[in-house]
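Team,

Forwarding the record for the chain on the shared tracking sheet. I've put the sequence and predicted structure together so nobody has to dig through attachments.
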Amino acid sequence: MTLTRPNPYIRPRSEAQGGPETGRRDVLRALAAGAGLALAPGVTLYAFGGPAEARPPGEPASAQVRWGLLIDVNKCADGCTKCVTACATENGWSDNGRPLTDAQWIRKVKVTDPRTKASKSVPMMCQHCAEPPCVDVCPTGASFKRADGIVLVDKHTCIGCRYCMMACPYNARSFIHEPVEDQKENVPRGKGVVESCTLCVHRVDAGRIPACVEACPAEDGGAMAFGDLNDPQSEISKRITKYASTRIRADLGTDPGVRYQNL
């Protein structure tokens, strides 16, 4: 697949989706039947930095690579908002205290074990699924998955139907209701379309790492690792091999690219 760096959000019409799609009915049935984690919207957001790798600048997206995140929730300190500030600054969105209508690029949810009552704060964003339900239900193809696993929205073909928002098990997408001002050059946004975390695709395509990962270096906790899940020598793959991790709502079969440690 050829995907030029200046337009990471535009889906080539010849692009294959890379495997069978998860059926909408299957996802909805699993959502109704499963007793999974409650992902209530939060208003305090954050994530953290740590070991990470990014691809060389100019190299096209490849199916040999699958970008992903590993988040150690034990290292996510309450009250720290470094990742939120970094994400908002990098992508030009803001949290105005209205989680159902404002940007949901990244947020923090409280997860409680019903048996022990123990609670943990979990950074939540688009899970960049291998079988994304948002892509399955999109009537125009605006929601799409790149060859390297990053799930995006083509703002040119999004009609604002919000089917993807209803299909997403992680409440990770939001609709832009108002005109957008002070847009970032590398992050197109606009009224009437859906948006979500892009893993800072413009940074990844330039050989850099996502802003949320960069915001929390190892000396400040290092709760998040970013890298190639397909590369056994990458730091993220080594951690997943060495330490137990989990995917949220793995029972849905969406195969998220975001894993959580100590959850």
